[in-house]
Design brief:
It is built from 11 helices and 10 strands. By secondary structure, the protein is an alpha+beta fold. Strand 7 (246-254) and strand 8 form a beta hairpin. The radius of gyration is 35 Å and the shape is rod-shaped. The chain starts with a helix and ends with a helix. Bound molecules: adenosine-5'-[phenylalaninyl-phosphate].
């Protein structure tokens, strides 16, 4: 009986050493050491042996079992190490510096979107303007017809910079302050777009970031109407998304436009996404910037570029756009 036990244990040990996968090893573990295994069968036969034989056979069985258990554990470790190596090889990312002649990566989705949008607007006859990300109260709020204590200031939770008078210097909460800078420095006709990064003291979620991007559009000329505004929004959204995307305007309130609206774009599945705000430039804003509202009228709109790009490319969580993961980034 002892010879049988040793022979079975030796054969089992060879099979364990030859197991090629963790699944295979688990099956063997059950087959060789489980309740229905040959070794367990010997245990049942021990009842018929005399006490001395029972002791030696028992010792041989224990030795065989312990040996096989150790062999299974050792093989499991080896197979796990091999699997970890294979996983690492499959997920390997080449992060070495880009050298001439090699694939040089590409621009981030948001940068690509800005470039594409600028191309669309330049094609429609607009120029591109930029302004500072750290701005003063005048440009971000006051010139835009937000009174000092106007409740609409709370619509955009503001990061204040600890500089100068309290609450005087802000991280711009929208790209509209660039409208003010353009109107202060140029005479109409003005046809300009203003791309840029903006900041709001907001909790982030799938549709909100604290640092995000907007594109502002400003037209000031003689005889500009709400019809020009609506058709410009429709033209640019169709140029960006494709002809199947419709837009709609809903009444809204912004202190710097009157009348004001929010505009949505309709996805092919019929659902609507809020993209931005718009309206006819308020006469007070024109006056604040040295433009005579009796002579000139204008429209403006501003929208979230992160939401726009995420909609086109099916990114369901805006927070992904801040991810440094090359596997996410290389999709675009
Ligand atoms: C504004 O920022 C106005 N300056 C827009 C405007 C311009 C109105 C010109 C009239 C004339 P609002 O706060 O609604 O409006 O933001 C505009 C768009 O920015 C939103 O529709 C949305 O697309 C995007 N946006 C706003 N908050 C966030 C956020 N936390 N994360 C990502 N996108 C955002």
């Amino acid at each position: 009986m002892i010879d049988d036990i040793r022979r079975i244990a030796a054969a089992a040990s060879d099979r364990i050493a030859a197991a090629g996968t963790i699944e295979e090893l688990s099956t063997l573990d059950r087959e060789l050491l489980g309740k229905t295994s040959e070794l367990t069968g010997f245990k049942r036969q021990m009842g018929g042996l005399d006490p001395d034989d029972r002791r030696t056979v028992g010792a041989a069985l224990n030795e065989a079992r312990e040996g096989l258990q150790a062999a299974v554990a050792a093989r499991r470790q080896e197979l796990e190490a091999i699997a970890a190596k294979q996983r690492a090889a499959a997920e390997r990312l080449d992060l070495t510096e880009v050298r001439a002649g090699r694939d040089a990566g590409h621009l981030h989705l948001i940068t690509q979107s800005f470039e594409e949008l600028e191309d669309i607007f330049v094609g429609l006859g607009f120029t591109v303007a930029e302004g500072p990300e750290v701005d003063d109260d005048w440009h971000n709020f006051t010139a835009l017809n937000f009174g000092k204590h106007h409740p609409a200031r709370d619509m955009q939770d503001t990061f204040f910079v600890d500089l100068g008078e309290p609450r005087e210097v802000v991280m711009r909460t929208h790209t509209s302050p660039v409208q003010v800078r353009v109107m202060e420095s140029q005479v109409p006709p003005i046809y300009s777009v203003m791309p840029g990064r903006v900041y709001r003291n907001e909790a982030t979620d799938a549709t909100h970031l604290a640092v995000f991007h907007q594109l502002e559009c400003l037209v000031v000329d003689e005889g500009i109407t709400f019809g020009h505004l609506a058709s410009t929004i429709d033209r640019f959204t169709k140029a960006y998304f494709g002809p199947g995307y419709n837009t709609r305007l809903r009444p809204a309130y912004f202190p710097f436009t009157e009348p004001s609206a929010e505009f949505d774009v309709q996805r092919p599945d019929g659902s609507w996404l809020e993209l931005g705000g718009c309206g006819m430039v308020h006469p007070n804003v024109l006056s604040n910037c040295g433009i005579d509202p009796e002579v000139h009228t204008g429209f403006a709109f501003g929208f979230g570029v992160d939401r726009l790009a995420a909609t086109r490319y099916g990114v369901t969580d805006l927070r992904e756009l801040t991810s440094p993961d090359v596997r996410f980034l290389e999709q675009f």
